[in-house]
Amino acid sequence: MMSTENPVHYPLPVLEHALTPNEINDLFSMLQSQPSINSTSSSETNRSLYSLEERKRRRMISNRESARRSRWRKKKHIENLTSEANRLNIENRELKNRLCMMAHDCHLVQRDSNRLLCESIYLQQKLTGLNQILASAMQLPQLS
Which InterPro entries is this protein grouped with (predicted)? Predict the structure, then answer.
């Protein structure tokens, strides 16, 4: 009598990236060890063990792929953080340079302001002296 069992199909996991050599070997050994379509019903115990082993193997491959994607995401995240840190360090250095230039300019303006204030005080004193000389000269009797 011919067996009318449907063949057992195992869906393969959808992989976004290439498989490692170990994973490829696992897949080949999995495909080679599949029971034949004409297997006898006396191997039901073997089939349930095979299904359990197959599920474990698929789960292991899926977990490896998931871990690989997770490592890739972590690597990209670290690269992004490193890039952002470098950008912020450059921006910080530029801001420090601008602050230093502004402080220098402020010092120059303050020095000029102090010089002008001293010059203003000197000129006010000189003007006061000239006004006093002029006032005293106007009080002298005029020679005609």
Answer: bZIP, bZIP_plant_GBF1, bZIP_sf
Interatomic CA distance for residues 124 and 85, integer angstroms: 57
Report yes or no: 70 and 17 within 8 Å, Cβ to Cβ: no
* Spatial contact of 46 and 35, defined as CB atoms under 8 Å apart: yes
Say if residues 16 and 69 touch (Cβ distance below 8 Å): yes
> What is the CB neighbour count within 10 angstroms for residue 85?
10
Please say whether the beta carbons of 27 and 61 come within 8 A.
yes
Are 62 and 13 within 8 A, CB to CB?
yes
Q: What is the pLDDT of residues 31-48, one digit of tens each?
A: 666 555 554 555 666 666
Euclidean distance between CA atoms 89 and 96, whole angstroms: 10
Distance CA 27, CA 138 (A): 120
Give the pLDDT confidence score for residue 24 in this predicted structure: 75
- The DSSP H or E segment spanning 133 is helix 44-139
